[in-house]
Amino acid sequence: MMSSASGRRQTFLLIFGFLCSFPFQFLSGAAGTTAVVHAQPLHSGRISPMLFGNFVELLDDVVPSMWAEMLNDRSFEGVIRAANWSYYDGKPDFCDREWDHNPTWSRDSDNPFNGARSARLTAARHHPASLTQSGLAVKRGMAYEFCGWFRASSPKLAATIRLRTLLPTGDWMTLTSAKLPRLSTQWRKYSVQLTSKGETDRVMFELCLEGDGQAWADKLSLMPDENLKGWRADVVQAVKDVHPAIVRWGGSTCDPGEYRWKEGIGSRDRRTPFKNKVWGRIDPNDVGIDEFCQFCELTGVEPLICLSFSDGPQSAADLVAYCNSGTDTSWGANRAANGHAAPYHAKYWQVGNEISGDNENYLGRFSDFVRAMKEADPSVLLMASFPTQKLLDRVGKDIAYVGPHHYTPDFAGCDRDFANLSRMIDSTLGCEQIRIAVTEWNVTGGAWGLERGRMLTLDAALLNARYLHVLMRHSDKAEIACRSNLANSYAGAIIETSPAGLLKRPSYYVMQLYASHAKPVPLRLDHSNDALDLFACASSDGKALCLFALNPGTEPVEFSYRFDGFTGAVREAGAEVLCDTLDARQRDVMNHWEAPERVKIVSQPPPHSPMVLPALSAMAIECQIK
Fold first, then answer.
1. Which CA distances in Å does 239 have to 32, 484, 528?
2. Nearest partner of 608 among 21, 37, 39, 16, judged by Cα
3. Contact indicator for 138, 226 with CB cutoff of 8 Å
4. Measured distance CA(305)–CA(293) in Å, rounded
5. Tell me, what's the pLDDT at 25?
6. What is the structure's pLDDT at 31?
7. pLDDT for 187-207, tens place per residue?
8. SS3 annotation, 10-33
């Protein structure tokens, strides 16, 4: 072991060749690995970009963390806790944020604009009423759009919107303010724009009512002008950069949660919030099928829509027509009236979430879904929920995909599951068209409590990479896979957002590395031992290949490789490696708001065999064949 900083840097430069300047210690003793990459394909299948997909569901703050709305409980229906069985560390999130309590306002069930309640403010001469919510963040020079629905007992009342922050001196500083036009005695929508003169993550929103009388407020909204069709601009960019190819919408809120898509279309101010039966919380219903499909358009990904089986086949067909039909149909005209004239062209549809393929009710009604949905759009590709032999026997001829879920680090078990499903598909008459779509996967789907924090670590990210290797090895049948989840999600997601910013977790960089470098043709590969997890793939034209080398251990590994059977010379063109930039060799290191790029992808000059693969790392070695 070298102990001096200069010795570490010298080893780092000569052996590893990173372009960044963190220290690298070489520890001898780790078993070396040799590999031979063959020109022959592993099988006749192709690696689909959709193997690097992701998943969005109405679970706690998953969607609110991606959506640009800055005010929680904007309908004044109240805040309820998440389901008691699902938690990480108990830290409050956006969904816990409440309107601050004070005696000048209360919730009122008499004649609300929407839902069951509105906010009633009571002002007296020389005693203004105030409605506030804390925990917001603003940027200097950024414009923000406020809107809301109001009615008042008197047009003489004056309403002002302010964004304020508390200074260390205990004084309040107003960052921006705007007066609303004179309030009507009937419900009416008002909008104003505010531009912040400061930047802080300790902002309080305030609605101040002056005069003598009462005013009611409902469906209040505050969004930055930089939002993209309601989505946070930083989230849209981060998703574009990670290249997921496909994103699934649905999950447990659909089944068994009985989500009803028709209640989530049209003006979001007219939608009624609903209680999430599975995950807890009151969902504001601001994000429905339109918003999700537009998110997919913004990020350049295919939508995969999971239907609520309990909502029935006619509702499923109506949703297909709403998404895909022209404006000359009733549902297409409805979509156009809601702001999107062009069809969404959604191809991929899953019938039900996590329903057993042995469920007789599911099997008995599945054909009704097929008939209704195909009548709405014959081109849609349908996938079943959990696969079984009985499901293939009964409905296999009608489906394009089966949809297992893998929430486990048991990759040998996943390998067996893929092999078993492949045998079932191949041996069942009329099922030769079926491919596998793993519509949810991660190293765990539970581990509630502090154990979930392990999904934030470099070690968990490398486990994700190992699962991607399993997927690519089975790409003769596996075509779609959606990692769970995209944002926040009790420590399980690839990004985390706060009101002030976005943090990329180590798993983000794994998904980015593989989506960026994977090529269509899987190649045969022989290796001397299991110290490294290796996979190779080539371009369709045979002019490029990528060798993925994953070191899950806490010691560097000497790695030798060669290429066999290629018609031209194979030359390394460059490489990228996901690693701990401090080379601490600790499995549980994470990215933090204070150190957001401790684990990241680092570019390298072309490596040469033999080389040293750093501890706890995943490398993509790009080669050209000439």
1. 37, 14, 37
2. 16
3. no
4. 9
5. 38
6. 61
7. 999 999 999 999 999 999 999
8. HHHHHHHCCCCCCCCCCCCCCCCE
- Mean pLDDT for the stretch of residues 405-417: 97
Torsion of the alpha carbons at 112, 117, 122 and 128, rounded to the nearest 10: -100
In 274-312, alpha helices (H): 289-299
For residue 610, say if its preceding peptide bond is cis, omega within 30 degrees of 0: yes
pLDDT band at 3 (very low <50, low <70, confident <90, very high): very low
**Residue range 463-488, pLDDT digits in tens:** 999 999 999 999 999 999 999 999 99
Q: Cβ–Cβ contacts within 10 Å for residue 520, how many?
A: 16
Q: Rounded to an integer, what distance in angstroms lies between the CA atom of residue 223 and that of residue 145?
A: 5
In which residue are the tokens 């998953």 written? 62
pTM: 0.94
Give 477's DSSP letter.
Answer: T
The three-class DSSP label of residue 569 is coil
User: If you average pLDDT over residues 86-112, what whole number do you get?
Assistant: 96
Q: Give which of 90, 166, 138, 236 is closest to 499, Cα–Cα.
A: 138
Q: Cis omega before residue 256 (within 30°)?
A: yes
Q: How far apart are CA 256 and CA 277, in angstroms?
A: 8
- Own/partner pairs, 262-265, CB within 8 angstroms, 24+ separation: 262/315, 262/318, 263/288, 264/288, 264/289, 265/289, 265/290, 265/322, 265/334, 265/338
Rounded-to-integer distance, Cα 577 and Cα 250, Å = 33
Pairing of strands 544-551, 533-538: antiparallel
Describe the crossing of helices 233-242 and 506-517 by its angle, rounded to 10 degrees.
Answer: 50
pLDDT single digits (tens) 32-84: 999 999 999 999 999 999 999 999 999 999 999 999 999 999 999 999 999 99
State the Cα–Cα distance between residues 350 and 355, nearest whole angstrom. 11
